[in-house]
Amino acid sequence: MPGSKVTKLSSARKEPWLELLRRRPELIIGPALVAWILADCLPIAFGRPFILGVWANATFRHTPGNAFPVTYACAVLLFLFAVYTLDALSWPRRLLVAIAVPFAFTHLYEVPYELIAYWVWYPLYNWALWPLALFLNGVWLALGVSTFPFWKLDRRAQAVLALFLATFAVWWLWFWPFIPPIALPTNPEGSGYILSKVVLALLVACLLWAGRPSRGGCPVPERPSSVEDPPSVNRDAGPGVVAPLTARVPFEARATALSEGRTAASGIPVVGRDGGIRPGPFGFDSLY
After folding, report:
1. Are residues 146 and 274 in the same domain?
2. What are phi and psi of 192, to 5 degrees?
3. Of residues 274, 19, 266, the one with CA closest to residue 283
4. Same domain (yes/no): 239, 207
5. Structure confidence by residue, pLDDT tens digits, 99-120
6. CB-side exposure of 10: number of CA atoms within 13 Å?
7. Under 8 Å CB-to-CB from 53, ≥6 apart: which residues?
8. In this structure, what are the phi and psi dihedrals at residue 36, rounded to the nearest 5 degrees?
9. Residue 116: which H helix or E strand, with range?
10. Same-domain check for residues 173 and 264
11. pTM score above 0.70
């Protein structure tokens, strides 16, 4: 039916939402970052902006616990790792994602930790269910989770996830291994707490490494041997000029091509003499 063909073509032209967020992460991380800044600038920490306390911790003017230096070091390393890993993005977008990645590490741990500690160490964590605490934790967690388009749970990440859950469970069930706090007052943090947190940082790095955009591009999928090149695929390029099977398409160029539907029906981009990707003769399709 002609109508069904038109519908199929128009739907194929639409870029997958996950691919769009990977190509333009500012669409999801930008609003989350703005919400984080606005929330932390509110005078909710005894009449002072909460971000002043964050700055005091970051500059080591106030250390909240003996695990903080380890947490801080992991966050900085994850930032640098994200900058290195996401080299397929432009520099502004790479820095934007890298800023948000450490928040995934800190609050994927802190939120469940504080909720459990509310019941285990109630006198120390009686604030964990305060509305303001839940609000701030939610904003920090949302900023970190906004980097999920660049996550992928491959086998390596699954193994590290299992290791993290094991160390986290052992710490909460038996508080092992435990080293008494360095100085009071401080959180009852032991080496099991620190170890499980380091494993979580490794998990975030594995997720980011597996889900990173390809540095050199995405390899063009192979075509079945039974499919022959059409007699004329591109008026400008001449008969049968198709990208070779070993060609690699840069990430942002591939994402742009997907958004405009400029791929051949078999999923192989048709390339003209000028190197531009042009539509194929059988409609449009996705590389995935």
Report:
1. no
2. -65, -40
3. 266
4. no
5. 999 999 999 999 999 998 888 8
6. 6
7. 45, 62
8. -65, -45
9. helix 91-120
10. no
11. no
